[in-house]
Amino acid sequence: QKEVEQDPGPLSVPEGAIVSLNCTYSNSAFQYFMWYRQYSRKGPELLMYTYSSGNKEDGRFTAQVDKSSKYISLFIRDSQPSDSATYLCAIPPSSASKIIFGSGTRLSIRP
Amino acid sequence: DAGVIQSPRHEVTEMGQEVTLRCKPISGHDYLFWYRQTMMRGLELLIYFNNNVPIDDSGMPEDRFSAKMPNASFSTLKIQPSEPRDSAVYFCASSRGAAQETQYFGPGTRLLVL
């Protein structure tokens, strides 16, 4: 079993829709959770991070962690064509200095 | 700051040739990471350095791959000899500290081995 699993998509939704992107992880000791966004032909960039359980909101984006289910989500409200990108969940194990990335979900917002 | 700089941006080579990818991290960052991204395997960590010292190279596919960081502002990833299955986008990233710190990625090098 991979440490971090993510549905690769692609996911296509109309502009204005609410988008839900999800990852599952295997190690209950993980505490810190990140979402990176990668535009076409660019490197990934950090979008949001959360620590432990609960929600964190930043504008139209909400990151949610459910540690009991080992499930993390990224919600995008009022989605825009400019949100079209690949979204990667990322988890840094506390005992290491490297990040485990999910495979990424390719998202397309139709105007 | 100019961000992480990688060169070349694109590389097309023939099987068996040596390929050298270059990276200049953000000044002041102590960690440097080399990743490979393909459709099939996603983003894979190849190796990372802390203060110019290789810490974990368990992701390096095989002996054909080598990486060096001779100083705080320069790193190379070399493939010798290259094979078609090495075709991928190679990213360099740097960060100030441990894994919870933001990693800043370069624009990547698109490598095609014919």
In summary, what is this structure?
Chain A is mainly β and 111 residues long. Chain A is built from no helices and eleven strands. Chain B has strands at 5-7, 10-13, 19-24, 31-38, 42-50, 53-56, 65-71, 74-79, 88-95, 104-105, 109-113.
Helices and strands in order:
The complex is a heterodimer of chains A (111) and B (114).
Chain A: E1 4-6, E2 11-14, E3 19-25, E4 32-38, E5 45-51, E6 54-58, E7 61-66, E8 71-76, E9 85-91, E10 100-101, E11 105-110
Parallel strand pairs in A: 2-11
Antiparallel strand pairs in A: 1-3, 3-8, 4-5, 4-9, 6-7, 7-8, 9-10, 9-11
Chain B: E1 5-7, E2 10-13, E3 19-24, E4 31-38, E5 42-50, E6 53-56, E7 65-71, E8 74-79, E9 88-95, E10 104-105, E11 109-113
Parallel strand pairs in B: 2-11
Antiparallel strand pairs in B: 1-3, 3-8, 4-5, 4-9, 5-6, 7-8, 9-10, 9-11
Order of helices and strands of chain B: EEEEEEEEEEE
Gap between N and C termini of chain A, in Å? 37 Å
SSE run of chain A = EEEEEEEEEEE
Strand content of chain B: over 45%
Quaternary status = heterodimer
* Pair with the biggest interface: A-B, 20 and 22 residues
Uncertain runs of chain B are none
Structural class of chain B: mainly beta
Count the E strands of chain A. Answer: 11
Query: What is the CA-atom radius of gyration of chain B, in angstroms?
Result: 13 Å
How confident overall, as mean pLDDT of chain A?
Answer: 92
**Largest sheet entry of chain A:** 6 strands, mixed
Structural features:
heterodimer; A: 111 residues; mainly beta; 6-stranded mixed sheet; 5-stranded antiparallel sheet; 0% helix; B: 114 residues; 7-stranded mixed sheet; 4-stranded antiparallel sheet; globular
